Amino acid sequence: MRHFLTVTCVFALLAIAGCGSKDDNNAPIGAVDASTPAPTGEASAEQVAKEMRGGVSCPAKDANPRAAGAPIDDVVGVRPGMGWNEAATFVMCDNAMIVVSENTGRNYDIQTYGQKLRQGFDGRWAEARVVKSSRDYLREMSEAAARRSGNAAAEPLPGGQSRFYVSTMGLPGQERVISVAREEAYAEGKQPTIESLTKALMAKYGEPSAANDAGQLVQMWWMYDPSGKKMQQGPCKMSVSPDAGTSLSTECGITVGAQIQTSNTNQGLARSLAVSSQSGAWGYDLLMKTEAALKAADASKKARELEDASKNASAPKL
To answer: Does the global pTM surpass 0.85?
Structure first.
């Protein structure tokens, strides 16, 4: 029987507290020390990046390299199965301006029994810190409302920048990467050709299982079943974007997707490239095991509470 699970996409940001080695998902790196006052005042984007990146050490190193012969599954080094901190380190090592923030609004549809699970993080370009007045905030809120009411298109990623979304799952402190998505926008004058990007993608990931050239978008997918056998077509195509939801199927192993958006002025040039990777059956199994472990822990806690109540509760007055 085919099983699917999807992640709900509602966006929110919270600074990560935890990054470092693969075996210590709670070691502080990539965030301002919570024990010290938060930085205030005007600051350049470069200063904000320095504050938020903490003691990250680059280049990042993969503690458990991909097995020989296994499907190539990384996006700029980030792979399904990596620990939270190791993945965050690879993301920040992509560029000295990238900072990581926990995303608390994109959650898998499982019961967490009141436990706080880190289910994903964003990697974004640091922005300058500007001191704003209440009038500034009101103006921004009004402008945002006007854009929503007019169904205005979201601003594209600025040229020369990249961004990530990494989804994770596991017991608190043991979260592992299920999927990773990265988008890079190219600056004017530095846009690569569509041909060079497709050749680079095939040089890394091999011949695609499926491809589609729709003019403005060029898409490619590499799909494998849970045993690692390459699939042709099939049900494992994924949406390719840091904004796309994650859909996991027990029929799918590693799936990698790429999407090239062409330049508005020259369809032979690329405006942006997005690449995503996920592990479907393994990710689904991790979600189910995590939920089962949380359920067992909750049942054990309630049993202890009942036992304690039978020993220590006050006798009722009737």
So the answer is: no
